[in-house]
């Protein structure tokens, strides 16, 4: 049972991959333990959002991905 994790934009550069699979159920602490310390610190920043199963989470620490879910890690949007 797995979920697909998508690293978007510069988060893919930090992860050194655009996506990975993780065993489910997958909560926030488990997600942070799967990635490098540098990426975990970036993900914990308030400007990074998390979507699970197509819905952006109001509080990313509420993440609980189940089998077949897609978790998208959304980097801060830059203006211009």
TrEMBL record:
Database matches in InterPro entries: Beta-grasp_dom_sf, Mopterin_synth/thiamin_S_b, ThiS/MoaD-like
Organism the protein comes from: Pontixanthobacter aestiaquae
UniProt cross-references to Gene3D superfamilies, sorted A to Z: 3.10.20.30
TM annotation in the entry: none
Tree of life domain: Bacteria
Record's protein name: MoaD/ThiS family protein
